[in-house]
Specification:
alpha/beta, globular, six-stranded mixed beta sheet, Rossmann fold, four-stranded antiparallel beta sheet
């Protein structure tokens, strides 16, 4: 059963067509990877789905109901949340405060504080509750981004390059967190440029180029698709 459905979504910014007639669906409990060159429209797609930049035309359905025009905070309460490519947080708050703020979407204050501490432990940030985000390593900032999403009790998370900037060794913890969330029933849609990561995690992939979907299939099929090789992998695939 499809939890998230994107149907013929087009997004225009003036005369610029950032997305053109993009369609795909995501099954409950799936990990879907979205790849494509820089500027292909991947982050715009997440913004169209999550309410930050509603589509110019087409439809987005979550759990069978259209969510076009629904504000992001309302979508979070329905169980759909996104992370951001550039880590965004409150610099003068502690990590516990940051995650508590996310947890308040579902819980009263005392319960939210307790749950936030629990979530920080789940993502590997136990003992860092009273640090500020600015003092964290990049890996820990990425884990904090995951914690913020997790604290809202999501059904589906849109992860926008959560592994960007990390070494392969540093991706181990975020990968483990994503896998554990998925094992617990959370549906994951992830935009990622780090191919070894997305090849490990995704059960299916969608490829976008110049705002259009050019391929869809298993990771094994996608890396052999000549259109994808020409548009995205190029010479790097043979290196």
């Amino acid at each position: 059963m499809a939890l998230l459905e994107v149907e013929k979504v087009t997004k225009r910014f003036g005369g610029l067509v950032a997305l053109n007639d993009v369609s795909f669906s995501v099954a409950q409990g799936e990990i879907l990877g979205i790849i494509g060159p820089n500027g292909a429209g991947k982050t715009t797609l997440f913004s169209a789905i999550s309410g930050f930049a509603p589509p110019s035309s087409g439809d987005v359905r979550f759990d069978g109901t259209s969510i076009v025009g629904v504000l992001p905070d309302r979508l979070v309460r329905r169980g759909l949340i996104r992370s951001f490519q550039i880590v965004q947080t409150f610099a003068d708050m502690t990590t516990l405060d940051v995650v508590t703020t996310a947890a308040l979407t579902r819980r009263p204050i005392r319960e939210a504080i307790d749950y936030a501490a629990h979530v920080l432990g789940r993502v590997g940030l136990a003992g860092k509750e009273h640090l500020t985000p600015l003092t964290l390593s990049l890996q820990d900032k990425k884990l904090l981004e995951l914690a913020k999403c997790l604290a809202t009790d999501p059904r589906c998370i849109l992860l926008d390059e959560v592994m960007a900037g990390l070494t392969m060794a540093e991706t181990d913890k975020p990968i483990a967190v994503v896998r554990e969330l998925n094992r617990q029933g959370v549906t994951i849609v992830m935009v990622e440029h780090v191919m070894p990561v997305i090849m490990q995690l995704a059960t299916r992939m969608v490829v976008i180029n110049f705002g259009e979907k050019i391929a869809e299939g298993s990771p094994a099929d996608i890396v052999k698709d000549q259109h994808v090789i020409d548009a995205y992998f190029g010479e790097h695939l043979d290196a």
